[in-house]
Write a structure and sequence with these properties.
Blueprint lengths: L5 H30 L11 H22 L4 H19 L3
Helix pairs in contact: 1-2, 1-3
C-alpha cells in the first residue's frame, strides 16, 4: 500500500470542509427558523441584547452540530463534492 500524497489528500479535505460548512450553515438557518417565534426570556437576560446575539449563538450551535456529524448532511455533501471533483479531474485527463 502506498501512502496518500498531499495532492490526493487535499481534495478530500476540501470536500470534507465544504460538507461540514454547508451542514453548519443549514443547521444554523434551521435553528433560526425554529427560534423565530420564541420570545426572549429571562434565562439569558432577555431584551434587545438577546435578540441581537441570538443569531450568533445559533450559528455556533450549527457549527457544533456539524462537527459532531450526527445528522450526516455534511457527509452526503462531501461525497457529492468528492465525486464531482473526481469526475472533473478525470475528464480533463488526456
Amino acid at each position: 500500500m502506498t501512502a496518500p500524497t498531499a495532492k490526493s489528500a487535499t481534495p478530500n479535505r476540501a470536500a470534507e470542509k465544504a460538507g461540514q460548512e454547508f451542514e453548519a450553515l443549514m443547521v444554523g438557518q434551521m435553528l433560526e427558523s425554529m427560534f423565530a417565534g420564541v420570545e426572549t426570556g429571562s434565562a439569558f437576560g432577555g431584551g434587545q441584547g438577546e435578540r441581537t446575539w441570538r443569531s450568533f449563538m445559533l450559528q455556533e450551535y450549527g457549527k457544533a452540530i456539524a462537527e459532531a456529524g450526527t445528522l450526516g448532511i455534511g457527509r452526503m455533501v462531501e461525497a457529492d463534492v468528492a465525486r464531482l471533483y473526481g469526475q472533473t479531474s478525470e475528464g480533463t485527463k488526456g
